[in-house]
Amino acid sequence: MGLFRKLRKILSVIFENESEQKGDDFEKYVVDLFDEKNFSIVQWTTDMARKHTRFVESDCDPDLVFQL
Known about the structure:
Blueprint: H1 3-33, E1 40-44, E2 64-67
Antiparallel strand pairs: 1-2
């Protein structure tokens, strides 16, 4: 593997991790907008595809589902 290809791979991993962190931070921000006295979290989908090589159908579900 050439030097530029390796460098491109490293940069893609760095930016992917940064993007995942931003997504996680945004989900936490949205959760904090809903008062836990009035809203319960019915579902908080985790992105299992990040941890596994196979497609996980539940990753297609909404990230967050609240109930009033």
